[in-house]
From TrEMBL, chains A, B:
The entry's keywords: Aminoacyl-tRNA synthetase, ATP-binding, Ligase, Nucleotide-binding, Protein biosynthesis
Protein name: histidine--tRNA ligase
Pfam families reported in the protein's UniProt record: HGTP_anticodon, tRNA-synt_His
Cited InterPro entries: aa-tRNA-synth_II, aa-tRNA-synth_II/BPL/LPL, Anticodon-bd, Anticodon-bd_dom_sf, His-tRNA-ligase, HisRS-like_core, HisRS/HisZ, HisRS_anticodon
Single GO biological process annotation from the record: histidyl-tRNA aminoacylation
KW Ligase (keyword) present: yes
Protein family membership: Belongs to the class-II aminoacyl-tRNA synthetase family.
Reaction equation(s) it catalyzes: tRNA(His) + L-histidine + ATP = L-histidyl-tRNA(His) + AMP + diphosphate + H(+)
Keyword Nucleotide-binding listed: yes
Gene Ontology cellular component annotations, sorted alphabetically: cytosol; mitochondrion
Known EC number: 6.1.1.21
Single GO term (MF): ATP binding
Binding-site residues for L-histidine, renumbered to this chain: D132, L133, T134, R159, Q175, D179, R328, Y332, Y333
Length: 518, 518
């Protein structure tokens, strides 16, 4: 019976060796049999009872993915570039929990609220996974009565959206936000956000880009003077938002046929939203007979003018364009809005199909890689007394950046290294494990990134092959002769050049007291 | 009616200014009234309807916390130390989603499974938040058929435990794992894990520490030769685990009175578990009349001997002790186990009360700051064919390290900086905003971390005060005279020393074409 049982458990566990040695041992004791039986019974329990079957579905949750070491190496590089920029601009960082009280998220995302992940009610508070980093930031400010902060936050957020993973849309994805909260003089922090986008996109070297700028107040003013009824502002705005994916004729058709706007109003809007320019355009529109009738629009236009004056000082006007067709989806924007798009062909544009408008922050634009704006009302929604903390911020579309960097790495001949090991400590002959461990310890203690194979007697060839695979540039080779001479042979893997290095006096003294006792 | 409504909405939103300007404007147009009404109605909707009340509970979920910028600065420092060590040892890193299929976690945590956070069933797969990083790691290896990897993973895990936040026990907390998977020669990777613990704890400078080592097989063998019935191995083991918090007499009482062990067996165990030593103890026990009867124990003891021989080569035996009372809680260990404890008094020992045994990984020991062991069976549990991937790993008790570092920072006179800004660009007189922005742009473009106040005309004193608060070491002061002379005055905040620096030719040329147009 023990035999049969063993056959069954041997498949998955360490039973094989125990059982084999048990049989081969002549002077077996009762205690030994007892302990072997105990081990086997325990294994049986772990195997899930007598039927011994454990069927796992080996997958990650829908819309999520693991990051393998290569993806992590790319991710780290991108994060380093972005974080360096945030730090250069004096930002602090904070972190918030992955879940919030459900009611904290309620009423912040409009229709998209249906995409929020709720936790199961297991007693206690009702919780939801965070949907973005902006609402937790506003909650943090209100809760801690913070009225001034410049912070970045890089973390994962969760949306039960229809995943399109091949196009970089996931249910778990990173957001990478920089925000300036506080009552300051107009447009200075707003301009710094654009400077930051400019710096990051230049440094990431993703190809040419353009930063489109508009203002919520200009949009609203424009709708008013064009005769859009008040209750149609939002829906017409979301149609305007499609101009980067559809020609004007189709957009107009949607406005008139689907949304019931008068053809005249649509045509007037069409005239404005085709306008692009810089400070000059803002000046022209301030003189525009119709536009100038809207106080809101004028306030927005004056701010655009001021913004451009700061952008000139920041030396970023080459990439920034005032574009009246920009209409970002999120409800909470109150002033300036902006969005950066890659303009170079061939950078894997997200197909139209992926743009269903539900994922406003990430997929607003075909080549959108950053976006943001001013939201002066959000923090006040959390404050019991409604105290406002004006905020302006930017979110880098980091998942899209990852995808592009991964594609670039794939296309490039250069291998992405997943470790930073500088030296492999190898041996040319057998029985040199101790010497290898001794040398690698010296290297580690000196702060050098080094590795050694976990084998008693690895072949030199397999040690060298490992270096080539892992991209380790140097091998320190130990052999009997080198040990006798007190040297180590250092080989450059790529060129096979070798130099003999004299080991330091400390090493020349031979085994320390510690090691002699082995 | 409009008036009454305005009073109500003014509390939380930007309505005040709109309404005020509306009244003061003489030549008001219909379009303007329309747009103002639209804005107000929209605000009303956002305020949640006519009653205008929005009551938020301003808190984070039970057992969780935000990290403020100071805590983040400490966290970053700790992570950098730890990650540098992992990289020095050639580790790659991976990441897995925060939630897994519920069934992936099922049957891995025994009684503690009740602490798993489940997500609400919103249609589709049943999901749970990860409980540790080890099970997702095993799932990742099995799913990708990886048989060799040395990886670290630093991420948050979730346990619906009874939180004790003042003692550093949270429902959302970091784990910081390093593991070596693969079929290698005995004890080499195991020894490297201990070397890593030694390096990290030394570098973090948390005070003196000790790394206790034992082996699951030695424990099981010991129980067998002491006459513990097979079905009592696990429960007696968990009583032994309490030896670091209770005297032997109480532990014995629990064994005999509560768990029904014979007094003779308990006394025999008592003799063994009081033993501590190094390689010599392992040698002695291999000769021990009783212990040597257990093949399992002998295998464990031989491996301890081999381990110590490698630890000597790694120069870490000063802190490592072979301790037969060490019995870590987790079920999945199959070989060597270890745990690092801080031995210095006054490092905020976690009180006994916090040790309810439910949080085995984090609170095993009073001063426990790291722990781990060998688990050769876990990956096989995920493989359809039960293929084993031997693993050994270590988890750094990072939350406890954070607490200690925060206490040290609190006690120290040195201020924790939350930004890395090197220079504040300030002005001595009014109307120099443009000049400040021009200079800060030069600094940013040169990669220098710099800030400027977001005010048109900040007082010099408030700019200097900001530097002192934020710990910014240098101020670049611009004044009319400096601009005329083509210099910038650089002041060391701490000493108030000042030097005049000639600005580079590029700057001497005066406003560029770009900026002249303002």
């Amino acid at each position: 019976m023990l035999g049969t049982f063993c056959v069954r458990v041997c498949s998955g566990f360490r039973a094989t060796s125990c059982v084999r040695t048990l049989h081969s041992l002549p002077g077996i004791t009762v205690a030994q049999i007892d302990e072997e039986v105990a081990k086997l019974l325990e294994l049986k329990v772990r195997l899930g009872g007598d039927d011994g079957k454990h069927q796992f579905v080996l997958k990650t949750a829908k819309g999520t993915r693991d990051y393998n070491p290569k993806q992590m190496a790319i991710r780290e590089k991108v994060f380093n570039t972005i974080i360096s920029c945030f730090k250069r601009h004096g930002a602090e960082t904070i972190d918030t929990p992955v879940f919030e009280l459900k009611e904290t998220l309620t009423g912040k995302y409009g229709e998209d609220s249906k995409l929020i992940y709720d936790l199961k009610d297991q007693g206690g508070e009702l919780l939801s996974l965070r949907y973005d980093l902006t609402v937790p930031f506003a909650r943090y400010l209100a809760m801690n009565k913070i009225t001034n902060i410049k912070r970045y936050h890089i973390a994962k957020v969760y949306r039960r959206d229809n995943p399109a993973m091949t196009r970089g849309r996931y249910r778990e994805f990173y957001q990478c936000d920089f925000d300036i909260a506080g009552q300051y003089d107009a447009m200075i922090p707003d301009a710094e956000c654009l400077k930051i986008v400019h710096e990051i996109l230049s440094e990431l070297d993703l190809g040419d880009f353009r930063i489109k700028v508009n203002d919520r107040r200009i949009l609203d003013g424009m709708f008013a003077v064009c005769g859009v009824p008040d209750d149609k502002f939002r829906t017409i705005c979301s149609t305007v938002d499609k101009l980067d994916k559809m020609p004007w004729e189709e957009v107009k058709k949607e406005m008139v046929n689907e949304k019931g706007l008068s053809e005249e109003a649509a045509d007037q809007i069409g005239e404005y939203v085709s306008m692009q320019g810089g400070m000059d355009l803002a000046e022209r529109l301030l003189q525009d007979q119709k536009m100038s009738q809207s106080k809101l629009a004028c306030a927005g236009l004056s701010d655009i003018k001021l913004l451009f004056s700061y952008l000139q000082l920041f030396q970023v006007t080459d990439k920034v364009v005032f574009d009246l067709s920009l209409a970002r989806g999120l409800d909470y924007y109150t002033g300036i809005i902006y969005e950066a798009v890659l303009t170079q062909a061939g950078v894997a544009p997200v197909s139209n199909e992926a743009q269903n408008g539900t994922n406003a922050e990430e997929s607003v634009n075909v080549g959108s890689v950053a976006g943001g704006g001013r939201y002066d009302g959000l923090v006040g929604m959390f404050d019991p007394k409604g105290r406002k903390v004006p905020c302006v911020g930017v979110s880098i579309g980091i998942e899209r950046v990852f995808s592009i960097m991964e594609q670039k790495a794939e296309a490039s001949a250069e291998k992405v290294r997943t470790t930073e090991v500088q030296v492999m400590v190898a041996s040319a002959q057998k029985n040199l494990l101790e010497e290898r461990l001794r040398l690698v310890t010296e290297l580690w203690n000196a702060g050098i990134k080094a590795e050694v194979m976990y084998k008693m007697n690895p072949k030199l060839l397999s040690q060298l092959q490992y270096c080539e695979e892992a991209g380790i540039p140097l091998v320190a080779i130990l052999g009997e002769q080198e040990l006798k001479d007190g040297v180590v042979k250092l080989r450059v893997v790529a060129t096979r050049e070798e130099v003999g290095l004299l080991r330091s006096t400390q090493c020349m003294l031979g085994p320390s007291e510690d090691t002699r006792s082995i």
